Amino acid sequence: MTVHRTPRRAAAALAGLVAAALALVGCASMPTSGDVMQGEVRVDTPVDVGFNVQGPSPGADPQQIVQDFVSVAQFGPASANTFAVAREYLTPVAWSQWNHGAPVLVLTEYPDWTVEEYDDASATTSVHGEALVAASIDETGAYTELPEPSAVDLSYDLSRGTDGEWRITGLEDGLLVLANFLAEAFHRTTLYYPTPDRRWWVPDVRWYPEQSWRTAATQEILAGPPEPLQQSVVSVVPEGTTLAIDSVSVDDRGVIDVSVTSAISAAPAEDRSLLVAQLEETLREGDGRSVELSDGNNPLAVQASDAPSRPVTIGDALAVVDRGEEGPQLRRVSGTELVELTEPPITAGLDLTAVGAGPGDRPVVVRDGDDRLLRVAADAEPVQLLRGEGVLPPSVDRFGTVWTAVDGELWVVREAGASSRLEVEWLVDRRVRSVRVSPEGARVVLVVQGPEGREVWAAAIQRDAEDVPTGLSTPWRIGAPVPSVSAADWSGETTVVLLGRAPDGSQVLSLAGIGGLAGTSDAGARELVTPGEPVHVASAVGASPMLVLDTGGVLQTRQSSALWPSVSGGVVAVAYPG
């Protein structure tokens, strides 16, 4: 009798197998993302993109069956053919019962495996493993990054068939994907929803299977905004509207055909037009150019109208500059220079330590010392807005509302001057240390001090009919792996820059994404290289460059990853509108 005791392995061979598969794809110049054109009309279920995956090897032992299955299955969301190969590793019953849709666990590396003792006469056995999970994707496509990789136990049951071959008979629902290959299997998709005044888009990032991302995104939009956004955006889709067929097609002209059920006929012309704009903003990435909405097979007439704008910061950054005996003064950042304001606000006698502004400098708000916020203008004396211990630098939304925190509690000051504390249930045990509102005014990013240390959260802003903030939605955790964050600012539609600390105690900048960072293979937060140690950062959504203030009071502007020219010394604070 032969007894098999399979030791733990590092799975280096498995990583090599996948790397070789991707290399073959690259050598053949085959795409690893996007849709594949075939014929005149391409449905959003593309042909195999060319992953060189193989079915079970004859005589493979239980561990090899499991590790090869994990390797193959992770690419299934990008290719129906790949899932067909993955199916060969399971018994028909196990395949029919396995839900591979969720959760998706994003692994830092492949698991180490152990096999329960078995011999040549054994008909069953189990393979166990432990993996480190860096992030997860739920059934809605929402990505969540963990503060640090977390261990998870894995288990697969196997049986030996009459032909002597091992196959998987039992496994947990969900999919394992190596972090480096996340963007190969899933498509980072930005859904857009209109603000209540229909002037701006509010982005919402999801991760959908690469082979069907347009279909999944369309279904999500037709279903209406997710719960956290429901009081911050509007839906123009009549109840009951769904896809007439479970697919979305793109023709050779780049026209995306979205065929929906007859419930769409209840939508007014202006709502129908906005829905088309919403679908175009979401779906036209890559080869898609425009959306044609149809009721079954009949194209629907859509009137031309102005579409909402994507979030963008309006205006230049303002800086507080120490002028020696003249005291601190406001200057505008223009390229690599500081210039005087055309109409300088009255700030004489104030100890300026922070500045904030609304779009186009309307209004301009400064912090005097560390306990007062004042609205300043060129034609009027400063007006005190709020006073209290430890007032944070102000953030001003597009409605002119000033956001700050006093003694760790979140406050808003309306344009007319009335102030109020914003009561948010999930902030009860947390103290706010930084606050910045997004350009479209529908979201806010907060750095808070919680029971487990500093955390960064983003939430949707809830407003009344007069656009006065009344609360915040359930939040999203972002930048979880970045330690000791002291400040955050918007640097993209769904990207924030974080001022945190490195293990040696020095302050560093990192980029993190709400719903996962764009432009990276694993969607995780990444550190930015700066020429010196930053103590303050200001960034904007759009083309404006990131600004960093170092320990010597020197303001620098980011022109590229390696080029940070100096703007001026003697700078105390800097901020973009927002």
UniProtKB/TrEMBL annotation:
Leader sequence residues: 1-34
Where is each GerMN domain found? 214-304
Please tell me whether the keyword ATP-binding is annotated for this protein: no
Which InterPro entries does the protein's record reference?
GerMN, LpqB_C, LpqB_N
Keywords from the UniProt entry: Signal
Query: In terms of domain of life, where is this protein from?
Result: Bacteria
Classification via Pfam families: Germane, Gmad1, LpqB_N
Keyword presence, Lipoprotein: no
Quote the protein name from its UniProt record: GerMN domain-containing protein
Species of origin: Isoptericola sediminis
